[in-house]
Structure formats: structure tokens, C-alpha cells
Amino acid sequence: MISASKKVRLILELRQGGIFDTALLAAMEKVPRDGFVPDAFRDRAYEDTALPIGLGQTISQPLVVAKMIEALSVNDRVKVLEVGTGSGYQTVILSHVCRRVYTIERHRELLRDAEARFEDMGRHNITTRAGDGSAGWPEQAPFTHVIVSAAAPDIPQMLADQLAVGGIMIVPIGDERREQRIIKVVRTETGFDVDDIGPVRFLPLVTGMPDVTKQDGRAEA
Length: 221
Ligand code: SAH
Fold this sequence. Notes:
By secondary structure, the chain is α/β, with parallel strands linked by helices. The protein has one domain: 3-Layer(aba) Sandwich (Rossmann fold). It contains six helices and nine strands. The protein has a seven-stranded mixed beta sheet with strand order 5-4-3-6-7-8-9. Strands 1-2 form a two-stranded antiparallel ribbon. The longest helix is centred in the first third of the chain and has 14 residues, at 3-16. The structure holds S-adenosyl-L-homocysteine. S-adenosyl-L-homocysteine binds next to strand 2, helix 4 and strand 4.
């Protein structure tokens, strides 16, 4: 099957999975997921599954990306902070449905590849940073919308603190042993409202930067 019809099938699967936001579905139809995966996985790019991207990381499952972005309730007037750029797949989708995306990745090598894709795809409303995203992006705070692409053991406090009142953060909480849940955090005048959106499976949010002296080779994943 050629990739156009595989992509149409994926969009149908997203609808069947409960995604109804038409702007989001249109964005996901526009974004060529086969441009975000290593050659060896290109023929599986439109399967609704996570796939390895090197350094032990994965490109997220499309239905999970869609559910998290839908829960974030964005529109083309807002800026979004994304933690965990990875391949940049979710970043590019966000760049179609938001005004600007600030994205942070701790693996410089993954970030370089993602930046090349943003350039190739002509996405000029994405600002990148290599670093530990659990510290957020204080110079750009407060944020009305924050999305975290790796599972944290608890709600990351520094990210919650960078939310504007009324701001929303979508973050997977849990670890390899516990079941992970997608959590929606909304900042109120007096504190935070927390909502459980459903189960999910993510790689861990890791604090600090990778140790370059024992750089885990890209070939391993
Ligand atoms: N949505 C991405 C998912 C990538 S996997 C995609 O579809 O490609 C999660 C990413 O989060 C990995 O690239 C990992 O390196 C990154 N990550 C984990 N902890 C992080 C942290 N504290 N700061 C920044 N990035 C982090």
C-alpha cells in the first residue's frame, strides 16, 4: 500500500479511537510520519504504534499524540511548551494547530535531527532548546499550554509553576512498574485541579543531560 492510503487508514483509526477535533485530524493528515522514523521502520510509519528512533527512545503512538493534543485544547492563537521533542513528530503537529511551539529535548543528537526535519518541512514557528525540560522554559513562562512527552513519577513542580492561571498541562504520570495515566493539570487562582484522562505507556522523563562520555550508541534501539 502506498503511504497516502496508509495515512488515510491511520486517520480513520484515530476517528475510531475517539478523536473528533477536525483541525487536529487535518494536521495529522498533513504530517508525513514516514519522515520521522529511521529507514528500517519507514514501511511501518503509518501503523498506530510507537517505533524506535535511536538512543533508546521512540516516536509516540499517533493515537496517544492525538489524545494528548486534544486534551490540551489548543488553538491557533496560543503558544505551547513541549517537553521531549524526540523525533519532532508531535512538535510538527502542534505547529499546525498552535501559533508557536517551544520544545525541549535532552538528547542533542535527536534534537539536531528534529531541527533538520522542521527546516525541511518549512515549519518556522518552532523554537528548540537542548536541555532538561523538567525545569521548563522560565524566560518564556507563564504558559497557557504545556505538554510532556515522557512519563514523570509525579507532577513536575517547576512545569506546574510555569503555568498561567487557567493554564493546562498534559503529562503522563507513572513509571515502568506502575500503570501510567495521562494527567491533566489546570492551574486555578488558589492551586491546581488534577484530572485523570486515561491509561498510557511512555518512556521515562529523565532529569539532567546525557553523559556524553558513555553516549549510548544510536544503533542500539
Ligand atoms: N513525542 C515524541 C516522543 C519522544 S520520546 C515523538 O513523537 O517523537 C520522549 C522524549 O523525551 C525522548 O526523546 C527523551 O529523550 C525526551 N526526554 C526525556 N526526559 C526529558 C527531559 N527531562 N527533558 C527533555 N527531554 C526529555
